[in-house]
Amino acid sequence: MIQYYMENGNAKPATVLDISENYVSRLIDIDGKKLAEVGQGKVKHPIKSDIGNYKELTFVPRITAREEMKDEDVAGTKIESSVINVGDIVEVSGQTKGKGFAGVVKRHGFHGGPRTHGQSDRERAPGSIGNRTIPGRVYKGKRMGGHMGTIIKTIKGLKVLMVDPERNTIVVEGSLMGPKKSYLVIRKQSWI
What we know:
Layout: E1 2-5, E2 11-18, E3 22-30, E4 33-40, H1 48-53, E5 63-68, E6 89-95, E7 98-102, H2 104-108, E8 146-149, E9 152-164, E10 169-173, E11 184-188
Antiparallel strand pairs: 1-2, 2-10, 3-4, 4-5, 6-9, 6-11, 7-8, 9-10
């Protein structure tokens, strides 16, 4: 992340995204809908089935995402920063940071029990989880401790502040999910 200074002098939090090495990896047809698969990077040791799938591209991309096909899309076409302009509104999808196993206080914002009256080991406990004899079980979806993070999240309505064609980077307003050097999918929002 960086601080991006607007023309009026105001500073905005922003994220720099590297969009180099992006290709139209292949064109596919699913249920009559034509899609273009966009790939990023190159796999060092690909498996034989992937080599066959990406025969037109001559290499296997590392990460892929599917988008609606445009007439000018051809397998192997490199996607440059020129497809995005300053002021465009985009949505970004990616995997959030992993937090490991988290309890109910961190995961769901529970307040825990009282700190006094003999509650030496129950401060961050969830409390009662069951019901009476009927239903005699815990309902599915009960908020409890468990694995937190590493989910796919989408942030919509982000404004493109700067495009640098020389470095093949763009600057997007705000913060984005995931650790540094993680892979994200950027889509233009045409409805705004």
